[in-house]
């Protein structure tokens, strides 16, 4: 029996069910809009296509590495954690995941747990992130 405070790691949980692709895509859209807005401070995202991509990679490194959620993931109630133990990825692996996601192709090749190549190479998985009940 799993403790709700410390659920089983996704790699060892036979009942693990990944979030829908719609929620993942929704999170990516929210994050992309934020990246477009932020990149306006130092570049023209229409002319300089690299700017929002750079912001996205840095956003993933910071937010996933430290909090396991980007702002878009928070809104859609998902998170990205380590496949093996369910913990945070850390900044280095989150940056790796962001760079691989920016290449797009790895995200399109998924396994039965909806882990793209970017997730498998970074040792990550996207899971549900239910809100905690307030006392």
Written overview of the protein:
This protein has 135 residues and is mainly alpha-helical. Helix content is 48%, strand content 7%. It has a two-stranded antiparallel sheet. The longest helix is centred in the N-terminal third of the chain and has 19 residues, at 21-39. It starts with 20 loop residues before the first helix and ends in a 7-residue tail after the last strand.
Question: Which structural traits does this protein have?
Answer:
single chain; 135 residues; mainly alpha; 6 helices; 2 strands
How far apart the termini lie comes to: 24 Å
User: Residue share in helices?
Assistant: 40-55%
Low-confidence stretches: none
Q: What sort of overall outline do the alpha carbons produce when their principal axes are compared?
A: globular
- Write down the oligomeric state: single chain
- Indicate the mean pLDDT: 89
Order of strands across the biggest sheet? 1-2
Tally of alpha and pi helices: 6
DSSP strand tally: 2
> Which structural class is indicated by helix and strand composition?
mainly alpha
Order of helices and strands: HHHEHHHE
Kindly estimate the percentage of residues that lie in beta strands according to DSSP: 5-15%
* Largest β-sheet summary: 2 strands, antiparallel
The rounded Rg comes to 15 Å
